[in-house]
Amino acid sequence: MNRLQLGDLAPSFSLPRAEGGEYSLQQDITERPGWRFVIFFRGSWCPVCNEELQEIQDSLSYFEGKDIHFTALSTDNQQDLKDMKDKHSLTFPVLADATEDILKQYGVYYHGEDSPYEDHGIHGEPAYYLLDEEGKIMYQQQQTSPFGRPHAKELRKIAAYIRKNLK
């Protein structure tokens, strides 16, 4: 498992978008200058994830006003992610990491068959990375269950705190 440190350049990636087409982190950094949260979530089937993504969508104008963008990834299948994205009218990129390659590059916890408890089968758990305008990691948090993740209000505080205290 990879262990990324604050200040490291985040692993770049290209993945399929839920609605089709390809997303490139490097291209997004170039085309949408600013900071970005890269969020890993369990899947379209997860009610806690759906609630969280809806909260982010509802707060998107605040974040965009601060030049902070969002990208969400899951190991879920592309069609289920598309259905979820459409149902919740999510406007930020939602990506399918079906091979789990990006999950592994970021060191996100993977709830596999060897996990000590049953939890909706095999899937990646929530993780959060705040990247600066160059793609360097300014904040990270990883979960081993669906609970304890920062919600949109906390993400606002995290980004504001880091910006205020940059060296």
Question: How does this structure look, described?
Answer:
This protein has helices spanning 25-31, 47-58, 60-65, 78-87, 101-106, 152-164, and strands at residues 14-16, 22-24, 35-40, 68-74, 94-96, 110-111, 123-124, 127-131, 137-142. It is α/β, with parallel strands linked by helices and 167 residues long. The radius of gyration is 15 Å and the shape is globular. It contains six helices and nine strands, in the order E-E-H-E-H-H-E-H-E-H-E-E-E-E-H. It starts with 13 loop residues before the first strand and ends with a helix. The protein has one domain (14-164): Glutaredoxin (3-Layer(aba) Sandwich), CATH 3.40.30.10. Its EC number is 1.11.1.24. Belongs to the peroxiredoxin family. BCP/PrxQ subfamily.
First and last CA, distance: 29 Å
Q: What is the CATH architecture descriptor? A: 3-Layer(aba) Sandwich
Average pLDDT score: 90
Judged by helices, strands and strand pairing, the structural class is alpha/beta
* H/E topology pattern: EEHEHHEHEHEEEEH
CATH topology: Glutaredoxin
Taking the sheet with the most strands, its summary is:
5 strands, mixed
**Radius of gyration, CA atoms, in whole angstroms:** 15 Å
List its salient traits.
Glutaredoxin, single chain, antioxidant, 167 residues, five-stranded mixed beta sheet, disulfide bond, alpha/beta, oxidoreductase, two-stranded antiparallel ribbon, redox-active center, thioredoxin-dependent peroxiredoxin
Write the layout of secondary structure elements.
Layout (H helix, E strand, L loop, with lengths): L13 E3 L5 E3 H7 L3 E6 L6 H12 L1 H6 L2 E7 L3 H10 L6 E3 L4 H6 L3 E2 L11 E2 L2 E5 L5 E6 L9 H13 L3
Parallel strand pairs: 3-4, 4-5
Antiparallel strand pairs: 1-2, 3-8, 6-7, 8-9
EC number: 1.11.1.24
Family: Belongs to the peroxiredoxin family. BCP/PrxQ subfamily.
Enzyme class: oxidoreductase
